Amino acid sequence: MTKISYHVARRKMVEEQLIARGIRDSRVIEAMEIVPRHEFVQEALAPQAHNDHPLNIGEHQTISQPYIVATMTEALALKGGEKVLELGTGSGYQTAILAMLADKVFSIERITSLSNKARQRLHRMGYQNVTLRTGDGSVGWPEEAPFDAILVTAASPGIPEALPEQLKEGGRLVIPIGSEEQQELFLVTKTAEGTQKKSLGGCRFVKLVGQYGFPEEKTGS
Ligand code: SAM
Fold first, then answer.
1. Mind telling me the catalytic residues?
2. Does 42 map to a domain?
3. For residues 99 and 40, is the Cβ–Cβ distance under 8 A?
4. How many domains does the chain have?
5. What is the pLDDT of residue 221?
6. How confident is the model over 13-32, as a mean pLDDT?
7. Is the CB of residue 88 below 6 angstroms from any atom belonging to ligand 1?
8. Where residue 212 falls among pLDDT bands split at 50, 70, 90?
9. E strands present in 32-182
10. Could you list the residue range(s) of the whole structural domain that residue 62 is in?
11. Could you tell me if residue 221 is inside a domain?
12. Which atom of ligand 1 is closest in space to residue 111's alpha carbon?
């Protein structure tokens, strides 16, 4: 595909998968029309980058379906001045969308090879307001807290206790909670009294592996 046809594919993705399904935040729509999603997957998969499903990014991990990226990002209600934490950098695509919509983005990935690739990619593409870390994000990033928004892009058995502590009052956390097979996406808002939880519907993510996520699978006998 040419640069022009990728542009057309993004426009079609935005119209048919996002606007038609109720995504309304014009800044989210604009960011997803601009960020070149095909550059966040292996070259062989680039022609499928705008399809209505997640795609393999190696290491048994995925870049999320465009509609899920839009739903989670819209729920964070970013206006432009925020400090945001993402858990699960993966390809770096969601990180790039957040970088266009917030002031500063911090993102953690536990798999070194994915984190390194995302770092190179985001650097090459010129995103300057992004800081990446390799490690277990389920403990958050206490040195950079508090955050206005936290986005967890992997399935968690519950709300990792460190995350609400690292949110500002009025801050928003979006997180898929459930079993390894199926989850429900939640918007958690921190208030003076505690937290409020709202369901955003069913979803299916790869798992958050770490201290406050699922245990790492043992290999070998
Ligand atoms: N946001 C990514 C993107 O746009 O490509 C998709 C993320 S993928 C669905 C989930 C990612 O979470 C995987 O890359 C996985 O390695 C990572 N992950 C799982 N457990 C983690 C943890 N405890 N800390 C940081 N990253 C984790």
1. 64
2. no
3. no
4. 1
5. 43
6. 98
7. yes
8. very high
9. 55-58, 61-63, 83-87, 104-109, 130-134, 147-152, 167-178
10. 54-203
11. no
12. 16
220 has pLDDT over 80: no
Query: Between 118 and 1, where is the model more confident?
Result: 118
Q: Is the pLDDT of residue 57 over 80?
A: yes
Split at pLDDT 50, 70, 90, the class of 217 is confident
**For residue 87, what are the CA distances in angstroms to 48, 57, 161?**
25, 16, 14
Widest CA span in the chain = 53
Tokens of 99: 């970088």
pLDDT of residue 219: 56
| 109 belongs to a structural domain | yes
Ligand 1 pocket check for 154: Cβ under 6 Å: yes
Place of tokens 């400090």: 83
Q: Which atom of ligand 1 is nearest to the CA of 90?
A: 14
Sequence-distant (6+) residues with CB within 8 A of 5 are: none
CATH of the domain at 194: 3.40.50.150
- Report which protein residue has its CA nearest ligand 1's atom 7: 90
107 ligand 1 Cβ < 6 A = no
Rounded Cα–Cα distance for residues 122 and 120 (Å): 6
Instruction: Please say if the pLDDT value at position 1 is more than 80.
Output: no
Helices 26-34 + 93-101 axis angle, to 10: 130
Is the whole-model pTM more than 0.85? yes
Pocket lining: 171 vs ligand 1, CB cutoff 6 Å? no
Q: Is residue 98 part of a domain?
A: yes
